[in-house]
Amino acid sequence: MTDTPEAIHAARHGDPAARTAVARLPGTSPELLTYLAADKVASVRQAVAAHAHTPPAVARLLAADADAEVRRVLAGRIATLAPTLDPNARSRMMRLSAGTLALLVQDTAVEVRAAIAEVVRDMPDAPRELILQLARDTAMPVAEPVIRLSPLLTEADLLALIADPPAPATRRAVARRPALTENVSDAIAQTTDTSAVSALLANSSAAIREATLDRLVAGAGNQPSWQAALVRRAQLPPRAARALGEIVTDHLLGVLAARTDLPEGLADSLRGRVAAQLAAQDDAAEPGEDSLFAAAAAGDRDLLLLRLAEAAGVTEARVEAALALRSGRAIAGLCHSAGWSARLAAEVQIALGGLAPAEVVHPTAEGSWALGEAELQWQAELLEGLPA
């Protein structure tokens, strides 16, 4: 591997763009990459961190780089080597790389650890110790991909995460894992974690015993999110369907009534209730925001999602795509397009968007929008490029 005179000159005397370009060249030698690893410009060091020919000793130094993006890029590359790394290997190079990965998986920046999790989340031959460490991370961008997708996590591992969750959302991540066993589903159902139970019920591939499902239906009277998941479950035993028909909230009646597997007589009864409900709505005045505030307080995500899509004139898929951005400004812009108040928008950001109070765009003391009209409209326009 030989560096061209032009590459050497650019690395030593070129501007940051030229030096970055050299660091990205597939044929750049380990020696020149070592030189560029000490560059003052972070973008150059990022390119070195991403390069396959960067020496392990240099990568170890970059693992302590002051720029988190350098460490994140390095973490993504080193993680691809995880199945081959052995801290006890004879090869010094392999030991160095294994040590670098060990440093990065303990990095204080969430995005660095998350870069590792994103790479190893579905590796069948990743080090099991690494997978367990990531699964027990307190930051969900790190833990969730591994919890949901790693084939190395056993039923015992999942039960341990449920019994002693490292973070409040750990159980919910377990509940979303494909093909959960009945034992794991039982363990989730026996907790007081309502959001995890809601995720479990929404997980169509989770195996849930009929007795467990009956118990959850019985407790769903004041849990709108459970009801929303239950009425959409692919397999709903007749006894559970009948019990659900007695407690389901009004906006879910139509969903339940549309099922083709309901017990005899239940479908007709539900359709009659739906027809009566529609007739009553026709006679009623246009509802205000009281019901939406109540839905937010109850955590009724399905109702809020439906009403926001209707009022903003977009599909539910686009609302979901906007929520996935986890941006208070984006959700506020959508609520503004729907004609909703700034106070309701703040509640929606928490109840529907799952944002922490510090991330929410709050209204002013007078209850008006803290964002200007132009900003709100711009946020709404940005969402037009999201999946419809």
TrEMBL record:
Instruction: Tell me the protein's name.
Output: DUF2336 domain-containing protein
Instruction: Output the superkingdom of the source species.
Output: Bacteria
